[in-house]
Amino acid sequence: MKNLSLVLNIVLLVAVGVLYFLHFSGSSPMEMTEEDSVDSTAIAENVTIAYVHTDSLLNNYKYFQDLSDKFEGKRSRLERELQGQAQVFQREVQTFQQTAGSMTMNQARAKQEELQQREQNLLMRREQLQSQLMQENAKSQNELYDKIAAYLSDYGKDKKLKMVLFYSKGSNILYADDALDITNEVIKGLNEEYRIEQSGGDDKKKTSAADTTASE
Questions:
Q1: DSSP letters spanning 80-103
Q2: Threshold 0.70, pTM exceeds
């Protein structure tokens, strides 16, 4: 009977403190202001290294925002699912505890074993969901990294850069000249690329067609 003090508080939450998950540092969010949205500096002539403010990039990159919202929505749905199952289970435990005295020994033992098995199933379900979320988190991190790296690769070649660094509080970079800061330009480019992806590439096709017509 002691085993049936099954409150299962541990099941009431999906024990995943994941998605903020993709932040590369624990520093305070830095969102672009209207003033920041206008490039006020240019990359110094002949400079081959530039940097991007990590927090500002993530907090203003629409793809990351959508990814975060999607992940948080799924995490909340799974949490509600587990909460519902745990509450139903807890009510059944309470009912058993109230009625066990009127059952035969065999009936009470069978019900107790049934409830213990259901507890194990709930715990297994929680672990499965936790693993699923962690796998999706890892996949999302890789996709985000690949998108940013691919864009910066093209950007760097275009600007003849040899290296682009992530600059954030707590990183190894203690000082960087503002002339090397390409954050706003990169955010603008990434968001435009994402906007075109969301539109199915139609905008890009229209632009190419317009360029072709103009050249004729």
A1: HHHHHHHHHHHHHHHHHHHHGGGS
A2: no
- pLDDT per residue, tens digit, the chain (216 aa), is 444 443 333 333 333 333 333 343 344 444 544 444 434 345 555 668 999 999 999 999 999 999 999 999 999 999 999 999 999 999 999 999 999 889 999 999 999 999 999 999 999 999 999 999 999 999 999 999 999 999 999 999 999 999 999 988 888 888 888 989 999 999 999 999 999 999 886 555 444 444 434 444
CA 148 from chain centre, in angstroms, equals 15
DSSP annotation string for 100-137: GGGS-HHHHHHHHHHHHHHHHHHHHHHHHHHHHHHHHH
- According to DSSP, the β-strands at 163-167 and 49-53 are parallel
DSSP letter at 164 equals E
Cα 191 to chain centroid, rounded? 17
CA distances from 169 to 92, 136, 164, 182, 194 (A): 51, 27, 17, 17, 27
Tokens 């000249």 belong to residue: 177
